[in-house]
Amino acid sequence: MSRHRLITTVLQSSASCSRLFSTIRKTNYESSGMPILPPGLVKYAQVPQKGNFTSQKIPVGLLKDHSTKAGTWGVIRVHRGELQYSIQEPSESIHNLSSIRVGIIEPTKLHHVFPLTQVMEFVVEFHRLEGTGPVNEQQEGYSVEKT
Hints:
This protein is an alpha+beta fold. Helix content is 18%, strand content 31%. The radius of gyration is 17 Å and the shape is globular.
């Protein structure tokens, strides 16, 4: 790699990191404690990729405290029924999600979900700044297991 190309690559990486960390630092919250999705993020993945999680088919990892990696935001979209979304950091807040109330997952913050209704369907979308990488469902703990 030429010296010029190496310097350009380092500068581009530095600019991406700077944008990433400025997005993480500037989290705004609703009065309920729900994070607000910052502008400029793009959806890059969804789990499950096809269909929905249901009351009977939720990955065990989602029912326990877990977090996304730095720079990865999530949007929980409930299509049927209700889902409880518990955010553990920076302070605990509990939200009942439905088709008219989405949940926002802040990067690196512990959270978990719990079905509130027998009939319930939801998906989790992943958002990030351009160029911060894809999600691996198994590596992130989102393989579907019966509860």
